[in-house]
């Protein structure tokens, strides 16, 4: 059910490159030539008339790409100025620098050269650091990056003409954070007009500062995708054979661009609209219980209930305490109401096995949520725990033991901090040291791609990321975690064991929705909880329900546009289903 693009961490990317080279399928020079050629091609697409370009080359292979770009643009008639560091690491980058030196000079990469009057360029290529950034830039390099980021008062100047190779330098590709600065927007974060990255998106392109600072993100194919499919163990498709450990769902949710629709999308559209079940019965689409709070608190639960209905749950029952029943008597009439005063009443209700999912939290009140939680958890029914249920959970860690893989916890950052204070502190705190595993060693796992990927997904980047935090929280709690934000991260607990295979860490998904800031509106989280509950009730596995829910939620906001209030979100869902069907039916 999950559709999206596979993402790779920086270590996975470097290891894959090493493995492809070790297999003899390609040389490092060929990969660098393709990478640099792709960037030059995208520059020429956006600036068709050859102009002046300054290429900034760092010490590693990112710099090596820069020398290739310089040569390709020079061959296309551009006036090229290259600023590079003296020390170039690695044979491939050294060779590319040598090839450029046959054409032109390499001036020192200093702020003075960058500022040099009369040398202003139409395009600046940032090839300083890519996936190999291991620690915060310091000294002269840090000043150059800050200057490009606008410390010289030229913020807009560079933003309009900076092309980043793999990422804006200084940004960690695993977290989207700039190393060495406090988390969150920095005054001089380097922001590109376009970022050309290779093979697959990395988490940092989608998280934290990534979407803003990368500008337009282009993922260039450098031939590794073919190699992955041909490699031993890779036959039949990379994704279908191994559970992808990371998946990105792009802002368009795979439905806005007909060219990207495939069989999976068609099946998904048919399932969502129930067209794949012509003789179906309402109970075949599940029965969701939304546990509401006392008088005066009902709006949030009603939003969730309405969303669960709209997303196709066969029946939805709203369960406030008896004194609040009359408050919930209004629309929609399709909603059933049933009083649930305490855990005993809940347990009695849950004897009906046709109830397939529960939602506790929106507007529940912390006291009532705490009282009902044991009943919800012991039913072992799929459930969404949101808002007050999360606060109740945080206040009584003993309840954590009752969580199970059918639970989806949907904290925003504040709730996450209450539930997992140590993980939250790591997200805000100083960066831990880089992993001591050398990704290049991973080539030895070839040709066993399963082991290779399992080992790699344990490798972490230099900055603790929202992805790491969600995965750690999922593993610790034994539940699916959906950490909300414009960069929502969804993770399932680890480990999962493949038959005859090693333990595979739980899958994770990034749903990046920076394009719909109007989704940050009161009650929008309640609607999300309702959508996910409806999908759980319909039988989607928890990770799928959470990912599909996050996608539908943002897509509904995108479809409505600015001015959105939470009540509008469920009403967009029928239109979304129609859009999905129309687009996936396109030839
Ligand atoms: N993967 C692929 O398929 C392909 C990858 N390709 C390209 O390779 C790039 C990755 O190359 P890479 O591994 O050489 O790393 P890169 O980003 O150039 O930097 C490493 C250098 O920086 C240094 N350094 C690190 N942090 C530092 C700091 N704070 N301050 C100062 N120095 C610091 C570090 O030194 P060290 O840590 O060893 O001291 C090392 O010298 C990738 O982004 C893509 O562009 C394509 O060519 C082909 C296909
Ligand atoms: N800037 C933003 N851009 C896009 N989506 C956002 C943004 N801020 C928040 N969201 C999304 O809006 C929802 C807000 O949920 P929540 O914080 O629980 O709000 P509430 O409690 O008011 O319902 C979440 O799904 C979150 O991912
Ligand atoms: K870069």
From TrEMBL:
A Pfam family: YjeF_N
Oligomer and partners: Homotetramer.
Catalysis: reaction(s): (6S)-NADPHX + ADP = AMP + phosphate + NADPH + H(+); (6R)-NADHX = (6S)-NADHX; (6R)-NADPHX = (6S)-NADPHX; (6S)-NADHX + ADP = AMP + phosphate + NADH + H(+)
Co-factor(s): K(+); Mg(2+)
Domain called YjeF C-terminal: residue spans: 265-580
Protein name per Swiss-Prot or TrEMBL: Bifunctional NAD(P)H-hydrate repair enzyme
Enzyme Commission number(s) of this protein: 4.2.1.136, 5.1.99.6
Keywords carried by this UniProt record: ATP-binding, Isomerase, Kinase, Lyase, Metal-binding, Multifunctional enzyme, NAD, NADP, Nucleotide-binding, Potassium, Transferase
Superkingdom field: Bacteria
NCBIfam families: yjeF_nterm (TIGR00197)
Residues that hold AMP according to the record: 484-488, 525
Gene: nnrD
Keyword Amino-acid biosynthesis recorded: no
Residue positions binding K(+): 62, 126, 169
Gene Ontology molecular function: any one: ADP-dependent NAD(P)H-hydrate dehydratase activity
Residues given in the record as (6S)-NADPHX binding sites: 61-65, 130-136, 166, 300, 363, 412, 526
Cited HAMAP family: NADHX_dehydratase (MF_01965), NADHX_epimerase (MF_01966)
SUPFAM superfamilies for the chain: Ribokinase-like (SSF53613), YjeF N-terminal domain-like (SSF64153)
Organism phylogeny: Bacteria, Pseudomonadati, Pseudomonadota, Alphaproteobacteria, Rhodobacterales
Family according to the record: Belongs to the NnrE/AIBP family.
BP GO terms, sorted: metabolite repair; nicotinamide nucleotide metabolic process
Domain YjeF N-terminal, first and last residues per copy: 13-230
Cofactor: how and how many bound: Binds 1 potassium ion per subunit.
Protein purpose: Bifunctional enzyme that catalyzes the epimerization of the S- and R-forms of NAD(P)HX and the dehydration of the S-form of NAD(P)HX at the expense of ADP, which is converted to AMP. This allows the repair of both epimers of NAD(P)HX, a damaged form of NAD(P)H that is a result of enzymatic or heat-dependent hydration.
């Amino acid at each position: 059910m999950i559709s999206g693009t596979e993402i790779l961490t920086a270590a996975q990317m470097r290891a894959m490159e090493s493995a492809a080279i070790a297999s003899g399928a390609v040389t490092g020079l060929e990969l660098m030539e393709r990478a640099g050629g792709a960037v030059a091609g995208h520059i020429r697409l956006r600036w068709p008339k050859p102009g002046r370009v300054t290429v900034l080359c760092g010490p590693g292979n990112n710099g090596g790409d820069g020398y290739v770009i310089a040569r390709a643009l020079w061959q296309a008639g551009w006036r090229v100025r290259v600023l590079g560091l003296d020390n170039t690491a690695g044979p491939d980058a050294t060779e590319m620098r040598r090839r450029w030196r046959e054409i032109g000079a390499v001036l020192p990469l200093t702020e003075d050269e960058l500022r040099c009057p009369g040398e202003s360029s139409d395009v600046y290529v940032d090839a300083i650091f890519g996936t190999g950034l291991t620690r915060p830039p310091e000294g002269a390099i840090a000043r150059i990056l800050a200057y490009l980021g606008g410390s010289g008062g030229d913020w807009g100047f560079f933003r309009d003409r900076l092309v980043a190779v793999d990422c804006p330098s200084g940004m960690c590709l695993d977290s989207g954070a700039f190393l060495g600065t406090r988390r969150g927007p920095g005054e001089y974060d380097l922001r590109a007009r376009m970022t050309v990255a290779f093979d697959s998106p990395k988490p940092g392109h989608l998280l934290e500062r990534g979407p803003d600072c990368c500008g337009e993100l282009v993922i260039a194919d450098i031939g590794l995708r073919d190699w992955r499919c041909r490699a031993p163990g890779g036959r039949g498709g990379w994704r279908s054979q191994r559970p992808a450990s990371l998946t990105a769902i792009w802002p368009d949710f795979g439905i806005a661009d007909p060219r990207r629709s495939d069989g999976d999308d068609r099946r998904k559209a048919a399932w969502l609209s129930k067209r794949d079940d012509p003789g179906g019965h309402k109970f075949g689409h599940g029965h969701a219980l939304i546990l509401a709070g006392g008088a005066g608190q009902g709006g949030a639960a009603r939003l969730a209930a309405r969303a669960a209905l709209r997303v196709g749950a066969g029946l939805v029952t709203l369960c406030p305490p008896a004194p609040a029943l009359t408050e919930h008597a209004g629309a929609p009439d399709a909603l059933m109401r049933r009083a649930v005063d305490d855990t005993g009443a809940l347990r009695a209700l849950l004897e009906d096995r046709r109830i397939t999912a529960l939602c506790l939290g929106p507007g529940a009140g912390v006291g009532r949520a705490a009282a009902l939680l044991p009943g919800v958890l012991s039913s072992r029914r799929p459930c969404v725990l949101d808002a007050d249920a999360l606060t109740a959970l945080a206040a009584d860690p003993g309840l954590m033991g009752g969580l199970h893989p059918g639970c989806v916890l949907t904290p925003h950052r504040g709730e996450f901090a209450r539930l997992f204070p140590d993980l939250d502190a790591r997200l805000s705190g100083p960066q831990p040291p880089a992993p001591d595993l050398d990704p290049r060693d991973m080539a030895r796992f070839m040709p066993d791609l399963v082991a290779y990927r399992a080992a790699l997904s344990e490798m972490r980047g230099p900055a603790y990321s929202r992805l790491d935090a969600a995965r750690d929280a999922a593993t610790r709690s034994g539940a699916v975690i959906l950490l909300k934000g414009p960069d929502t991260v969804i993770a399932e607990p680890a480990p999962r064991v493949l038959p005859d295979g090693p333990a595979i860490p739980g899958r994770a998904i990034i749903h990046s929705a920076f394009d719909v800031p109007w989704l940050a509106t009161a009650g929008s989280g309640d609607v999300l909880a309702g959508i996910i509950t409806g999908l759980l009730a319909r039988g989607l596995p928890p990770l799928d329900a959470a990912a599909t829910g996050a996608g539908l939620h943002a897509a509904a906001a995108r479809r409505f546009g600015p001015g959105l209030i939470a009540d509008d979100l469920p009403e967009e869902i029928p239109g979304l289903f129609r859009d999905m069907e129309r687009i996936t039916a396109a030839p």
